[in-house]
Amino acid sequence: MKLKKQHSNFIARKITKDLINADFIEIRKEKSHITQVCEDILNEDIQKEIDLDDAVDEILESQEEEIEFYKADYRQLFWMTKKRLANEYGVNLNFEDRFSNIAHKMMDFLYEEDYIHFTVNDNQVKNLIAASINEYIKGYDDADSIAYEKIKNYKRKLIPGTEEYDIIFNRLYEEELIKRGLL
């Protein structure tokens, strides 16, 4: 699953919860500070991919006439161009490796800045963070679908994209994540 900025706070909260509940980690800063650091690191990574996607769009738009002339598959060209430029933008397209790298950045920062302390192997902490990201992603689809269905069945019809819709959807979505133990 491609990470999106609207998910970063939820993922960061899941990571924080798992760090706090781990027996082998001593928490030395407030929960909200840890969550903010994790969210910032996630957003930085997500922004790199957004920048990459924008660059690919720009390249393909400049070649639009040729793409139409050759009746090329835009999605396939997008993906091929994205793969070619990924290293230049610092984006790892393999999700497992990417989440592992994000987890490593978080662990390093939290430890070096004295947010957390642990005496176990670094890999144990990194794996805990990576597992939190993966668990969130697995539960995301179900929570998202259920929240969408609930909002669809509201008596008054809400218009997607409005502030009211977003507030209610986020509340329902958060409730589903809590039910699944993801927050």
Please, could you describe this protein's structure?
The structure is a single chain. This protein is mainly alpha-helical. The chain has one domain (5-138). The longest helix has 32 residues, at 31-62. The protein contains seven helices and two strands. It is flat, with a radius of gyration of 19 Å. The protein has a two-stranded antiparallel ribbon with strand order 1-2. Helix 2 (31-62) packs across helix 5. 75% of the residues lie in helices and 3% in strands.
Keywords:
183 residues, two-stranded antiparallel sheet, mainly alpha, 2 strands, 75% helix
Summed up:
By secondary structure, the protein is mainly α. It has helices spanning 5-21, 31-62, 64-69, 74-89, 95-112, 122-152, 163-179, and strands at residues 25-27, 116-118.
Layout of secondary structure:
Blueprint (H helix, E strand, L loop, with lengths): L4 H17 L3 E3 L3 H32 L1 H6 L4 H16 L5 H18 L3 E3 L3 H31 L10 H17 L4
Antiparallel strand pairs: 1-2
